[in-house]
Each structure stands twice: as C-alpha cells, then as structure tokens.
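To illustrate the input format used throughout this study, we show a single complete record. The first block contains the structure-token representation of the backbone; no residue identities are included at this stage. The design step must infer an amino acid for every position from geometry alone.
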C-alpha cells in the first residue's frame, strides 16, 4: 500500500480499536515513541506513549461501554515521503444513554513510512457558541454561555439532591417499545430493592420488564396516547419489587422532547397502602349495597350544614316518586307527602335536631304512589364534629304499615263485644265521652239505651244459643239502622246503647225510635208467631250543656219509666220538663255470653266450643251456631256439606239462611267437570276463598251465578286424610272482602264444628252397627 492507503487503513483500525472494541492495550502497537496527545478536556495532554496509554485506560473507570460510530469522514494530506496527516470528523454514540453523543474532530499525524506509526492525535469539539460565518466568539456571549453552564451545573446538582429526597423514585426512559432506561435515581433503586447491575441483568435495562405483566399493555397505551399539548400524565399501575411481588405506584410522568423524539421523566410514589384502603372501602361499599338491595328499609343521610337529604335507591320502589328536595331546617317546610296529622310531630323532631338531641325515633305516615298513607318508623342518629356541632344525620325509614294496621286491628278488637261485634261497654263510654267534647255547636244530641223485652224468659225457655242468636240479630239491625257517624255498643247482657252526636229535631229522634222498635219485631225466637219487643230510654239535650254521665243517667231514667209504663215503646227525657225527682234504676239484665270470652281469632271458635260442649241437642244447636256465624259476618247463607262414600256427591246437611237468600240455592252438588277435583280449590291451610266468581272456570262460575252467589268462603273437613266435606258461608247481595283475621277466625270456628260433626257421624255409625 502507498502512504495514503496505509494511513487511511491505520486510521480505520484505530477508530475500531478505540470506539468499537475499546481495546486500549493494543493501541500502543500503533504509537511512535515520541507520541503526543491533545484531548477535549482542559488538562488532557500527553507527551509520551506511556502517559497517553495510562490516560486512555483510565477512561474505562468512567465508562467501560462501547460506542456506535456514525457519519465518519477522513481526509489525507502528505507532508513528506515518509509522513502525513489524516483529519476528519465522526459521531460516537455511547451504548449507555446516560452519556452524551460525541461530535468529534480528529487530527492524526503519521511518520516512518513504510513502517508507519502514529505520532500525534488531536481531539476537538465544535464550538456551538460560534455563529455560522464568524470566526470569533464575542466575549459577552462566551461569558453568558459559561454562566449558563454554571447555572445548569448547579441546577443539575439541586435536581439530583431533590430526586434523592422524593418519597419514591425518579427515572427517565426512552419512547420505545421497552421504555428503555435513560437514567434513574438511587431512590428509585431503593424503592424496589434493586441495584443498577440487577436492573441491567434481570430486566435488560428495560422498564417495561419491571412492570407487572397484566399492566404492561395499559402503561404502553397510556404513554403513547398521551394528549397532545398536555405533557403531564398521572396514572396508577403495579411494578415488581425485588421479591417479585407487585406494588402499586402512582406515576407522575412528564413527556419532554429528546433528540428528534420524546422521552418520559417519571416520579414514582408508592400507593400500596392507599390501594389497600381503597379496596377495603370498595368491599365495604359493596357489602353496603348488598345489604341495601336485600332490605326494604330506606337508608338516608342528612347533611345538616347544607340541609340536603340523600336517600337510598329503594325510596322510589317504596313510594314511587323522587325524594322531596326540601330544606327542612332553614325553610321549616314540611312536604305534602307527610300526613297532615303528623306535620307537628315532624316539626318537633326538627326542633330537637336544632338543640342537638343525639337520637330520634318516631312514627309518621308518608304518602305512596297510590296516594295512600303508609305508617313508617324513622330512626336516626346525629354525627358531631370536633367542636360538638351536629353536622350529619344517618338514619333509616322502616315500613311498619302492617304492624300498625295489626295494632289498630287489635285495638279495635279489644273494643268490640265478642258476640255481636259492637263496641263493648268501656269502649262506647270512652268514644261517646270524646265525641261530646265542646265544639261550640248548638245542635241536639241524643242517647238511646235499648233493652230487649222479656229476654231472660226467652233465654230460659229456648236456651242460650237461641238467646245469643237474638242478640246477634238485634246488633245487626242496630248497625243497619244507624249512620256511620253514630256510635252503637252493647253495655250489658240484653242492653244496648246508641249515641247520636247531631240530631236535627225532636221528631227525627222519635222517628228513629219507631223504626228501631218496628225493625226488632222481625226477630222471632222460633218459628212461632212470638215477636221480640224492646224498650228504649232516650235523653235529648243541646250539645255542650251536659256531660256524658248526666246524659247516661237521664236515658237510664227514661228507660225505667218506659218499662214501668209498658214495654215495647220509648220514653224521652224532656229537657224542658223538671224530671229531677225521677228515681234512677238500671234496666240492665244478666249477660248471656260472658265477657271473659277471648277476642281476636279465637272469640267465635271458643264460643262455639263452649256452646256445643254444653249442648243437649247437638243437631239443633249446630244450626243455631251457623246462624250466629251468619249474623256476625253479615252474610245470608251458612252451611255444612258432607260427601257420600265415594266422594262423587256433596249434600248440605246443616244450614242457616237469611230470609232474603234465594230459595233456588242448591242442596246437592255433583263433583263433575271443573268440580271433579274440588279439593284443588283449597289452599294449603284448607281454605277456599272466592271474593268474586270471575276467575273460576265457566261451569263452576255458572253454578254460583245461577244461585246469585257473589262471595264464598269454605273450610275443608279432612277426616283420616280423606276429604269429608266442608263448612262455608256465602253472600248473594254483594262482593265482600274479608281480612286475614276474619278468615282465620272462621277457620278456627269451622275446626270446632268439624270435631263435633265427625264425632256425631261416628256415633251414628256405631249405633247402626250395634
């Protein structure tokens, strides 16, 4: 090779040894003994081959990696036949991105051809402060550049100090598929428990490999799709620590320019404990939602400072409309969904809240979507701030409508006479006393005391069951002949009371008395012509002039006068006459049915059990019990039907009919057609309740319609597992709806009758056998 070829060849070998292979020891084979070197550093000079080799090898302590050389250009200049210069430039890119790309200018001197050696090397960098087309740098610009560099160095030192104190870690990564690390802080390594070597060996210096596998796609898509013009990204994901366990971190990432692309500068904050708290809160809320979804109770929260109410979603399911957006505290307004009678109690609750009562428990009525008020129990407790000021109320709204209805039914039952269903003595006394409270009215009021004439003799002659039937019929007539605003009660064995709170005139009272006397004469103890009469004592006064005790005494005196003058009539205590000398004497007789009979579901059943147990003529007395049932429930036909041996035909064996009940009613039914499986009409409690025949099959409906039957209830008789027959009642006048309590009462009474029917039939069979 000639001098030029050999010089360029050696230059290329030196470039490979120094930049590509970093084989510094082999470089000394290329150096002349008087080799000299000028480097880019301020004090980087060498005047011998030995000094140069030591200086070059020391570079490995700072950076031992390799370079990728690009844009390499070299040119040859001959100095003599044995010496020359090679000069040019190249770009050296370090493999470690922590180090900058080197734009290097080189001048190499060679001597001793053909045994060519490197005698001198001069490294230099372009001065970027020198303007294009200029040869010198103004001193001011040079000073500004130096000051800027000094400030930059100080800023870098402060930044490095800051990153070491960040509660987490900081790192920089490239915008490639692996998020290759450009740099990271010591706090980053401490955060995850790795060393720099472990980052390089275990993860190939790639941040993506440290990220929890399930989160990698999410992280890549997040940083790649960051919003243009918004260089900041905050997002959460998991990173594997040195124990290979994922920990949650918050990445506060900034996207900044880097060469011709961008890179990501990230501050990582560990949020593992916060994530656990969030998960616990999520599970708590999930449990709360499950509890809410499985309860009909309504949960609410009341922000007392903002005066805002928030209800659980089942408010709409319960009430059918949006919760009322009312400011209860400031405006002191009550929504119209609250029952008028409960507005004042609710206002009192609000007052209690304002004075700091810690707990509230009350019962009010709220309107639902059907415009019906339902009873609700409201309970809540107050939460206080550190100053003891109530700031929030947490509570529940419980539907207690059925509970209150049951309570009211029990209260009503406690006020009722067991036999007649009228108000008992204590209840009628209380109700009339309340109704007589002063109201400023000047209308007339009247009190009737009615006594059944000769009742004791009838009771003794025809028996207690006959007497009970008469009392039931009397009660039914009194109820039918009075208004809804009047009060009717039984105050003794055969003594009844009616209070008329408002009467237009004296003649109206007399007409009422005559109607009652005439109507009661329709009652007969037996099929004979004997009729029932009654005596009525009447007290008539203006309202607000007397109390109840006075009114009762005068009505009782009038009754005594009427009974002494002759029965089956009425006497009025005339407030215009002086009757103060009338002798007071009670007309009360001896009760037939003891007031100790139980009320509620057992009252009729216990009565029937007592009556039939004491009966000497069971066949006759069963019919009388049926009549009492009919009077009590206000129906016109009560009966017992029994099946034949093969259960193909049912025959009515006992019955009571009101005089208005159609005479065309059937006495026998064949179990055919829709009736072939008649027992299927009964529920699991043995009750067949038909408030309306419309839902029955056609042939069954026709049978009922042919008898003008509107409503029917039957209880099955089961003997030794076999369908024996049934006990029922029906009404031909109107469709009736009976409460669960009334149906239970009838079921118990039917069970009592069933025992005696089966017992009676068994005795008859034994007698036939003997």
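Output of the design step:
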């Amino acid at each position: 090779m000639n001098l030029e070829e050999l010089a360029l060849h050696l230059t290329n070998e030196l470039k490979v040894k120094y930049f590509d292979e970093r084989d510094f020891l082999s470089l000394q084979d290329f150096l002349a003994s008087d080799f000299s070197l000028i480097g880019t550093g301020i004090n980087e000079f060498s005047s011998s081959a030995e000094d140069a080799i030591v200086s070059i090898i020391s570079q490995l302590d700072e950076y031992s990696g390799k370079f990728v050389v690009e844009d390499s250009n070299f040119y040859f200049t001959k100095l003599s036949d044995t010496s020359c210069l090679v000069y040019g430039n190249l770009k050296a890119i370090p493999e470690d991105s922590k180090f900058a790309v080197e734009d290097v200018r080189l001048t190499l001197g060679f001597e001793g051809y053909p045994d060519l050696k490197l005698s001198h090397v001069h490294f230099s960098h372009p001065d970027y402060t020198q303007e294009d087309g200029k040869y010198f740098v103004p001193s001011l610009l040079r000073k500004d550049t130096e000051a800027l560099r000094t400030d930059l160095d100080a800023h870098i030192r402060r930044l490095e100090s800051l990153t070491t104190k960040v509660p987490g870690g900081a790192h920089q990564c490239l915008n490639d598929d692996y998020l290759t690390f450009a740099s990271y802080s010591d706090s980053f390594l401490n955060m995850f428990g790795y060393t720099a070597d472990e980052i390089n060996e275990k993860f190939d210096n790639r941040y993506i490999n440290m990220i929890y596998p399930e989160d990698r796609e999410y992280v890549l898509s997040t940083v790649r799709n960051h919003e243009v013009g918004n260089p900041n990204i905050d997002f959460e994901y998991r990173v594997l620590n040195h124990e290979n366990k994922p920990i949650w971190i918050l990445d506060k990432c900034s996207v900044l320019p880097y060469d011709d692309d961008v890179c990501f500068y990230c501050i990582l904050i560990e949020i593992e404990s916060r994530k656990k708290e969030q998960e616990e809160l999520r599970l708590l809320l999930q449990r709360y939602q499950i509890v809410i979804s499985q309860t009909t109770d309504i949960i609410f929260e009341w922000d007392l400072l903002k005066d805002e109410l928030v209800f659980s979603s089942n408010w709409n399911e319960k009430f059918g409309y949006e919760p009322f957006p009312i400011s209860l505290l400031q405006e002191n307004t009550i929504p119209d969904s609250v029952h008028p009678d409960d507005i004042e109690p609710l206002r009192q609750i609000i007052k209690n809240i304002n004075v700091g009562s810690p707990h509230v428990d009350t019962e009010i009525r709220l309107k639902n979507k059907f415009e019906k008020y339902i009873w609700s129990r409201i309970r809540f407790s107050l939460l206080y701030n550190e100053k003891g000021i109530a700031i929030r109320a947490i509570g529940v709204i419980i539907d207690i409508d059925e509970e209150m209805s049951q309570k009211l039914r029990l209260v009503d039952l406690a006020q009722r006479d067991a036999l007649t269903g009228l108000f008992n003595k204590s209840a009628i006394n209380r109700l009339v006393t309340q109704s007589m409270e002063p109201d400023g009215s000047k209308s007339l009021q009247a009190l009737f005391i009615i006594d059944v004439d000769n009742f004791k003799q009838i009771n003794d002659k025809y028996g207690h069951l006959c007497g009970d039937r008469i009392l039931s019929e009397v009660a039914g007539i009194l109820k039918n002949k009075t208004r809804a605003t009047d009060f009717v009660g039984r105050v003794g064995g055969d003594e009844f009371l009616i209070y008329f709170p408002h009467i237009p005139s004296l003649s109206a009272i007399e007409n009422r008395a005559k109607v009652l006397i005439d109507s009661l004469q329709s009652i007969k103890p037996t099929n004979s012509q004997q009729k029932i009469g009654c005596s009525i004592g009447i007290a008539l006064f203006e309202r607000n002039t007397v109390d109840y005790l006075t009114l009762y005494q005068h009505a009782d005196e009038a009754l005594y006068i009427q009974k002494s003058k002759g029965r089956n009539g009425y006497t009025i205590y005339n407030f215009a006459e002086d009757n103060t000398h009338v002798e007071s004497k009670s007309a009360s007789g001896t009760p037939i049915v003891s007031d100790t009979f139980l009320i509620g579901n057992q009252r009729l059943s216990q009565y029937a059990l007592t009556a039939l147990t004491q009966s000497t003529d069971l066949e006759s007395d069963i019919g009388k019990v049926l009549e009492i049932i009919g009077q009590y429930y206000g129906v016109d036909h009560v009966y017992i039907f029994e099946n034949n041996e093969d259960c193909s035909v049912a025959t009515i064996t006992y019955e009571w009919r009101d005089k208005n009940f159609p005479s065309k009613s059937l006495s026998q039914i064949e179990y055919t057609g829709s009736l072939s499986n008649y027992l299927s009409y009964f529920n699991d409690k043995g009750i067949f309740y038909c408030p309306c025949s419309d839902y029955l099959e056609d042939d069954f409906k026709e049978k009922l319609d042919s008898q003008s039957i509107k409503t029917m209830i039957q209880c099955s008789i089961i003997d030794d597992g076999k369908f024996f027959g049934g006990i029922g009642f029906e009404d031909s006048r109107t469709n009736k709806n009976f409460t669960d309590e009334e149906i239970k009462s009838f079921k118990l009474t039917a069970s009592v009758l069933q025992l005696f029917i089966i017992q009676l039939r068994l005795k008859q069979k034994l007698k036939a056998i003997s």
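Structural context for interpreting the output: Residues 293 and 544 are 56 Å apart (CA to CA). The longest strand covers residues 246-258.
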